[in-house]
Amino acid sequence: MKKYFFFISVIFTLFFCSSCAPDLKIPEASSGTANFSKTIAIGGNFMAGYQDGALFFKGQTLSIPALLSEQFKLVGGSSFNQALMPDDNGLGLNSKLWESPFLSPFHLGYKTDCKGIASLAPINTAILLSAATPYLRGVAGNSIQNLAIPFANMVDYFNPTFGNSFLLGNKNPYYNRIASNPGLSTIYADAKAQNATFFSAWLGMEDVYNYASSGGTSKPISSALNFSFHLDSILSALTANGAKGVIATIPDFRMFPYYNLVSWNSASMDQTQANTLNNLYDSTFFTQIHFHAGQNGFVIYDETLPETVRQLHQGEYITLSVPLDSMKCLKYGLVGSVIDGRYILDSTEVYQIDQSINSYNAVITQKAAQYNLALVDMHSFFCSVKSGIKGNGVDFNADFVSGGFYSLDGYHPNQKGYALIANEFVKSINLKYNAVIPDVNCLECDGLLFP
What we know:
It contains 15 helices and 17 strands. By secondary structure, the protein is an alpha+beta fold. It has two domains: 261 residues, Rossmann fold, CATH 3.40.50; 79 residues, no CATH class.
């Protein structure tokens, strides 16, 4: 009987408490002071959805602008047109053109290294020009709303020849696919002609990172003055008819595995090995090269020095594009061959990159205030990823492969990473325009896919 009365009292208590609980209301979605009826996106690799070293169908359908457009539909937005690749094989630009012009996306598979050890590793394949035709085919007209073009520097936005085809000598095949009039139109003019009511922009990244990813061997980073001029031209055109928008700052290169996975001093050896190398360099009169037991800096070519070669030191970086098998088995960077400059960021180049990021971000912040735009602090966000963040209850960090945020190229986020970035855009838009746009919850976004 006591158990019976206890059960009744519990049921009564639960009913009483639930009936007296406050009525929690979910805020109704609202556009605030912004108008999302016609949206466009402009930028480079990240806004295009480039990941795993390539541009492909699913990556584009789950790009930052595509994810944002689905949220914008909740507050008056409409369809969002993209020039989608025909499949998930896609097309990536190969920085090592002597191998092939294009590459397939990376995938995780078993690979046997030069020592005969098989392990899971990022794998991709070369795509010859003869096989690239389906991915080079253009989409005519001016209806494309995602105008983000991978690897486009700011000056390219105003250059009509940037829309020429790859077959005519244009090293970038991506704008040709969406140009309203290839060879005559410009990204700038096509974006302006959309007459959008809202735009999402992430500009300046390629000016910095095209240089950084090449080890400083590509054309120099444009000055902050030139960047400011080009950015002002774009923003004044896009806001001319009262459009509002959001713009993002540029992250620190140290946040990306591409620049820190291979450490400057990861040449590990015992004292006997060090003595052997020291004797070799001493015999060739390169006495400035010295190894010791433990971790050592690799040897690089430095044309600014009379002796032309030296070792890397702290604060300098090796890019992930370095031939790893050659380092493992052929003593690349130790003896026989110094590491090529295209794989190195030396202290002078690091200083240039840091100065450019800082000055570009100052310009972006100033222009956001001038044009009354929402500002996304991606510089701080990527630092937080490095430290570790949570998204939908899942832990993410900047570790290569295991961190869950970056794709297999070590620079571009994966789809889950892009969804987290999209939510940072949403936060800034909500704050600036007093909007209520729900967060992205992308269940179909891929992270790391195991074989």
